[in-house]
């Protein structure tokens, strides 16, 4: 295999990986659960990232990261 072919394979693999990460899908049954928890407990996202419950921690970290993304149609 030539070096050029190897570079093409790597480039295509990276492109596929990036493309697969573009669309995040949250199941309907889970939408709003984190915000409901925040409202119910009165805690912030940052406080919930230190929760003992692993699912709560996971949701809090996801929300913290999602805040940095460019959301289509939303005005800041």
List the keywords.
single chain; 76 residues; mainly alpha; 4 helices; 0% strand; elongated
Question: Which helices and strands, and how do they pair?
Answer:
Layout: H1 3-21, H2 33-41, H3 45-48, H4 54-66
Order of helices and strands: HHHH
Distance between the termini: 50 Å
Strand content: under 5%
What share of the residues lie within helices? 55-70%
Q: Largest sheet at a glance?
A: none
Structural class: mainly alpha
Overall geometric form: elongated
Q: Radius of gyration, Cα only, in angstroms? A: 18 Å
Give me the count of strands.
0
Quick synopsis:
By secondary structure, the chain is mainly alpha-helical. It has a domain at 25-69. The protein has 4 helices and no strands.
Folded structure, characterized:
By secondary structure, this protein is mainly alpha-helical. The protein has a domain at 25-69. 59% of the residues lie in helices and 0% in strands. The chain is built from 4 helices and no strands. The chain has helices at residues 3-21, 33-41, 45-48, 54-66. The longest helix is centred in the first third of the chain and has 19 residues, at 3-21. The radius of gyration is 18 Å and the shape is elongated. 4% of the residues are buried.
């Amino acid at each position: 295999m030539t070096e050029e072919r190897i570079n093409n394979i790597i480039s295509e693999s990276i492109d596929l990986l990036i493309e697969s990460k573009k669309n995040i899908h949250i199941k309907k049954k889970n939408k709003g659960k984190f915000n409901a928890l925040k409202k119910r407990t009165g805690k912030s996202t940052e406080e919930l990232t230190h929760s003992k419950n692993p699912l709560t921690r996971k949701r809090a970290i996801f929300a913290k990261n999602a805040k940095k993304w460019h959301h289509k149609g939303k005005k800041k």
